[in-house]
Specification:
Blueprint lengths: L3 E6 L5 H10 L6 E5 L11 E2 L10 H4 L4 E6 L8 H12 L11 E7 L17 H26 L17 H10 L5 E7 L1 E3 L9 H4 L3 H5 L3 E2 L1 E3 H16 L5 H8 L4 E4 L5 E2 H7 L12 H13 L8 H4 L6 H6 L15
Parallel strand pairs: 1-2, 1-4, 2-3, 4-5, 5-6, 6-10, 7-9
Antiparallel strand pairs: 8-11
Length: 341
């Protein structure tokens, strides 16, 4: 199979932004993409591929095309998965000469590793009433846990950056760290905040996120990144590190290999503020939905005089300026609730 510059493993939601961008710059990068069924994505045929972490058959990986950069869009978890995928790819795709550089893997991760552990857990098979009761109990417990930790530390408010402590025992963090530490391939991680754009519209999450007044009481900050800005970030990373005239290899060595970047659109959103802004979304009669009324009641109960609440009050704020500064970019789809999906 003919080699390409970029291989997209898992052409899902992110690829619906990345592939059109690559098509606009056909002379810059050649690419191929996989899906589990080989279905077309954005008019491009894809390669059937399914990563099975429990299989030790190298054939599916061996059948993939050779690529300079391999983008992993699906989550790898725990120990061994990253090593198996990357080292099997290296073994089954011998480089033409010893002078050829190592394969470069980019894993899409999540800023969830900087959150409390409970946020990463999911429900089992239970009734809607049981699930709602558990969700209310969980969000309350998480808020109390965060408040207790803040009181115990007695530290002033500070932004979370990519250099801040993270949950090293998180399954995704374990796999990401395994990739970043690889001596066989070069690996970097792009930790994404909440995804929106295209089919992902945050306004459709209201009933799931704000399912009760008590749940809303503990909803604080939200961080987002649009699919187009993810695509622009990936395109820029690859093209910048391939530009030999501008020191691409040095750029990769300093800012790519072994790094984990945090990616947000530069805003810290207040859930209450967003819900108020979407008061009549989906309301045929034009009357505000129940969640907007809950926000006003909570503002009275919690002594919040105006929205958005301060970052000190919400307690969690990500600072991703370093990424945009390092790679010379500016988000073009910032401000959820103003920009169209």
């Amino acid at each position: 199979m003919e080699g390409v510059d970029l291989l997209i493993l898992g052409a899902g939601w992110t690829a619906t932004f990345l592939i059109p961008l690559l098509q606009q710059h056909k002379d810059s990068l050649t690419f191929a993409a996989t899906t589990t069924t080989g279905r077309p994505v954005c008019g491009i045929d894809t390669i059937p591929f399914r990563f099975d972490p429990d299989s030790k058959d190298p054939t599916p990986i061996a059948n993939l095309p050779r690529a300079r950069y391999i983008l992993i869009t699906f989550p790898l978890t725990g120990e061994g998965q990253s090593t198996w995928l990357t080292e099997t790819y290296e073994t089954t795709h011998p480089r033409p000469s010893t002078s050829q550089k190592k394969y470069r893997f980019i894993q899409l991760g999540s800023t969830g590793i900087w959150q409390v552990e409970g946020r990463r857990k999911r429900h089992g098979s239970k009734s809607p009433e049981e699930q709602q009761a558990e969700r209310e109990a969980r969000v309350k417990a998480e808020a109390e846990q965060a408040a207790a930790a803040a009181a115990a530390n007695k530290k002033p408010f500070g932004f979370t950056t990519r250099h801040s402590p993270y949950l090293t025992t998180d399954p995704r963090a374990i796999a990401e760290d395994e990739l970043r530490a690889s001596s066989v391939v070069d690996g970097m991680v792009l930790a994404l905040s909440g995804l929106w754009g295209g089919t992902r519209d945050p306004r459709n999450w209201v009933s799931r996120v704000a399912f009760s007044k008590e749940a809303m009481r503990h909803k604080t900050s939200l961080h987002m990144i649009h699919g187009l800005d993810i695509a622009r970030a990936l395109y820029t990373i690859i093209t910048a590190c391939e530009d030999e005239k501008e020191g691409g290899d040095k750029k990769w060595a300093e800012h790519g290999k072994g790094q984990r970047w945090m990616l947000t659109d530069g805003f810290v959103y207040d859930w209450w503020s967003l819900l108020m802004g979407w008061a009549t979304e989906g309301q045929e009669d034009g009357e505000p939905r129940e969640q907007a009324k809950w926000v006003m009641e909570l503002m009275e109960e919690e002594g919040v005089q105006a929205l958005p609440r301060s970052m000190e009050l919400m307690g969690r704020a990500y600072d991703s300026r370093e990424f945009w500064r390092t790679w010379g970019l500016v988000p073009v789809k910032a401000r959820v609730g103003v920009n169209a999906p």
